[in-house]
Amino acid sequence: MPTTLLLFIALASASPVPEGSLLPRTVVNTIRWRGDATRNQLTSCASAGPEGSRNGDRLDLIPQPMRYCGTSWYLNDGAIGTAWPGAPFTGRCIDSTLYPGNGVKPHMWQCYNGVWQQQWRYHADGTIRLDGHNLCLDVTDGDPTKPVQMWECFPGNTNQQWDL
């Protein structure tokens, strides 16, 4: 069965993510920021180009897919990792760093099962929160040309609202 068909079946059978739950095991086509008309996509561009991603690659927003940039995401029991065409999971997850806080830039890092730095929850208000912390993925200054950061979660803050 072609990979494209398997991906389609996985996406078609996916159900909405329950409020406050750890993100379930599935592939989502995009994570889009709600805060602007272009509906920019969360992405991680591979610093190594065709060789793939490396630990420390940053998170950005782009209006459309670009070469060597992953805009599909693999959700696995709370961890959010990049998925590339033909490779459902790259082994890199969104990581909060050892010292998360306001203004700290999350990055991509080798996935480790269950580590707190890689556990995120999606909420009905559209926020993606670091589990056990009041920190959300946040578009820096509401400017999609800047890297994504973590910031204290505030109700209604459009810089922190995403669609899976």
Short description:
With 164 residues, the protein is mainly β. The chain has one helix at residues 3-13, and strands at 21-22, 26-28, 32-33, 41-45, 60-62, 69-70, 72-76, 79-83, 92-95, 107-110, 120-122, 128-130, 135-139, 148-152, 162-163. Helices cover 7% and strands 32% of the residues.
Task: Using brief descriptors, characterize the structure shown.
1 helix; three-stranded antiparallel β-sheet; 164 residues; mainly beta
Task: Describe the protein's architecture and organization.
It is a single chain. By secondary structure, the protein is mainly beta. It contains 1 helix and 15 strands. It has one helix at residues 3-13; strands at 21-22, 26-28, 32-33, 41-45, 60-62, 69-70, 72-76, 79-83, 92-95, 107-110, 120-122, 128-130, 135-139, 148-152, 162-163. The chain is globular, with a radius of gyration of 15 Å.
Tally the beta strands.
15
Low-confidence stretches: 1-22
Largest sheet, described in full?
3 strands, antiparallel
Structural class of the secondary elements? mainly beta
- What is the typical, i.e. mean, pLDDT? 77
Strand content of the residues, in percent? 25-35%
Q: What is the helix tally?
A: 1
Shape: globular
Q: SSE order in H/E notation?
A: HEEEEEEEEEEEEEEE
Q: What is the spatial order of strands in the main beta sheet?
A: 1-11-12
Helix coverage percent: under 10%
For the CA atoms, what is the radius of gyration?
15 Å
Distance between the termini: 26 Å
